[in-house]
Specification:
The complex is a heterodimer of chains A (278) and B (262).
Chain A (H helix, E strand, L loop, with lengths): L10 E4 L5 H7 L6 E4 L1 H4 L4 H12 L2 E4 L13 H13 L5 E4 L20 H18 L4 E3 L14 H12 L2 E5 H11 L3 H7 L5 E7 L2 E2 L4 E2 L8 H14 L3 E5 L7 H21 L1
Parallel strand pairs in A: 1-2, 1-10, 2-3, 3-4, 4-5, 5-6, 6-7, 7-10
Antiparallel strand pairs in A: 8-9
Helix pairs in contact in A: 5-6, 6-8, 8-9
Chain B lengths: L1 H13 L4 H5 L2 H4 L8 H23 L1 H22 L14 H6 L7 H19 L8 H5 L10 E4 L3 E6 L3 H9 L12 E8 L2 E6 L2 H11 L4 H11 L6 H13 L3 E5 L2
Antiparallel strand pairs in B: 1-5, 2-3, 3-4
Classes of the chains: A alpha/beta (278), B mainly alpha (262).
Chain lengths: 278, 262
């Protein structure tokens, strides 16, 4: 169990507009949904209406891409105010975003841009995560993004940076196992060492997804099934954390609800097998 | 160091112009990998930036995307985000300036038609995202005393936008949505209202007099005055029965959310 006693929600998938009709017509048996915060913060239309109905029937968490935790721009108070209101409205179990920055000087690239892993970055990010958690009145949960470059300035490994940040800022972790694999391929590190160094008691959620291997590098496209090496890494991570909410992400060429759901059920079967073996 | 690095990287990712110019100097900040140079690694983010902007604007402006075609729309998006880069945490409002941007493109072929189409598509996204406000119920309508109708003022629901076009762009957009060849666009004054009912985005085509009347009501004119003004302005004069039929239709479609009378 994590240090905040946040529940193991089981095996869920991301709520996507292409699946709205299927969900509303069938109310499928699924453990939980992850809702993309920014898609529901500024709408009073159908997406929010559907999200509210989903939140009445299933546990939900909010996952964002625009908090820009590592940016040197001021914290976006208006954004956090809306996020907090949405989390309350949907009774979200937790709120997550990424260890990254999305823009500076008032601009937003809408990408999860990598942080340099330095003492200065760590101090800066710890301070911001603490402040954001205060504003949200709940511990922030941070995800490791996929990255495609490394900075000369970095003096920390990503995993030590993330682990230290989590301890010093007292935040939760969303361990994206596919992202660990993608970054390990792109930067040539050992993904098992990464996962072994992450404080298991702070992991409140896992992400799993497919990716696109371009040969020279891997892109985190969320466009396919989870590959075997990522399932292996997930097994290793689960051994360390025990039962932790697990979610399948699928955002490009999104197949039917049943296909995405089947991928989540694969994780459930996989964990059940693991328990039997143990 | 952090602020300097972020300023540099944002320029490398989003600066308009050639990739080579934007990525110059990447080696100062970025390590090479065993397979990619610093410029190539940074270029991955740069390549994804415009694609993300294009994808977001394609969702909101499918008509423009269809008209320009894949390459043309990509060029359009590149010049648009150069002028109006995202300053918001959400991509939902990235396209808010598209009509204005098109209006100022003096050399753009078929600018008036494209401006009309952009206004229609922007209005549709606004109506889609508007807050939900309840429509007048039959009970609320019945509660208005007969003698008060003349001075009653009707307030539209929030998800309500009236537009007047020089071209019949709703027909073009309908064809694009149905994946059919769009009709040739020739000037034809066209008046519509976009609104939402049961969370579905709907359109009502309006005759000139109906548009005039609905516009007066939406501006808060008392019903009696609005009907009289619309009737006097209509040529040929509309029949009283037609006015009543329009009014009934607007009520049943849920265009009004409140009614006030003294």
């Amino acid at each position: 169990m994590n240090r905040w006693n946040l529940p193991d929600l089981g095996f869920g998938i991301g709520l996507r507009t292409t699946h709205f009709s299927h969900i509303l017509e069938n109310w499928p048996k699924i453990d939980w949904f992850e809702i993309l915060s920014e898609n529901y913060m500024d709408t009073g239309g159908r997406p929010l209406h559907v999200a509210e109905q989903v939140a009445e029937r299933y546990p939900v968490v909010l996952h964002g891409v625009s908090m820009s935790v590592g940016s040197t721009d001021p914290i976006q108070r208006e954004y956090l105010k809306k996020l907090k209101a949405l989390a309350a409205r949907l009774k979200a179990h937790w709120v997550s975003d990424h260890l990254c920055w999305t823009g500076v000087h008032g601009l937003n690239t809408h990408d999860l841009l990598p942080m340099p892993y330095t003492d200065e970055s760590l101090k800066h990010t710890v301070k911001r995560v603490r402040r954001i958690s205060e504003i949200l009145e709940r511990p922030l949960v941070l995800e490791n993004p996929s990255t495609y470059l490394e900075f000369h300035a970095s003096t920390w490994t990503e995993w030590d940076f993330l682990a230290t940040l989590a301890e010093e800022a007292d935040c939760g972790l969303l361990l994206d196992v596919n992202n660990v694999y993608v970054s390990s391929y792109n930067h040539g590190f050992d993904p098992y060492e990464y996962i072994a160094r992450i404080p298991a008691g702070r992991v409140v959620q896992f992400h799993l997804a497919g990716h696109t291997n371009k040969g020279t590098h891997i892109l985190d496209t969320h466009s396919d099934h989870v590959i075997g090496k990522v399932w292996d890494l997930y097994r290793f991570a689960r051994q360390r954390t025990g039962g932790v909410a697990t979610l399948i992400e699928w955002d490009e060429a999104i197949p039917s609800f049943d296909v995405v759901h089947a991928e989540a059920l694969k994780a459930r079967k996989f964990v059940a097998r693991q328990r039997k073996v143990a | 160091m952090l602020a300097g690095l972020q300023s540099w990287m944002q320029q490398a990712v989003a600066k308009p112009g050639s990739d080579a110019a934007a990525l110059r100097g990447a080696g100062k900040w970025v390590r090479p990998s065993s397979t990619l140079s610093p410029e190539q690694r940074t270029g991955i983010y740069r390549g994804m930036y415009l694609l993300r902007m294009r994808d977001a604007l394609t969702v909101d402006y499918p008509g423009l995307a269809h008209y320009f075609g894949p390459d043309g729309f990509e060029r359009f998006v590149a010049s648009y985000v150069k002028k109006f880069p995202s300053r918001s945490y959400t991509l939902n409002r990235l396209g808010d300036h598209v009509p204005e941007f098109i209006r100022r493109q003096r050399g753009l072929k078929r600018r008036e038609f494209l401006y009309d189409m952009a206004r229609a598509e922007l209005a549709m996204t606004e109506v889609f995202d508007e807050r939900e406000t309840p429509a007048l119920t039959p009970g609320q309508i019945a509660a208005v005393p007969a003698e008060k109708w003349e001075s009653a003022r009707l307030i539209p629901v929030a998800a309500f936008r009236m537009l007047e076009f020089d071209y019949p762009v709703p027909l073009y957009l309908e064809a694009v949505r149905e994946e059919e060849p769009p009709p040739v666009m020739r000037p034809r004054r066209t008046r519509v209202v976009y609104y939402r009912r049961d969370y579905a985005l709907l359109r009502l085509d309006l005759k000139p007099a109906a548009y005039h009347l609905l516009g007066l009501l939406a501006k808060g004119e008392p019903l009696g005055k609005a009907v009289e003004a619309a009737w006097l302005a209509s040529t040929p004069r509309v029949k009283e029965g037609a006015l009543f039929a329009w009014f009934q239709r607007w009520m049943s479609e849920g265009l009004f959310g409140k009614i006030r009378w003294r």
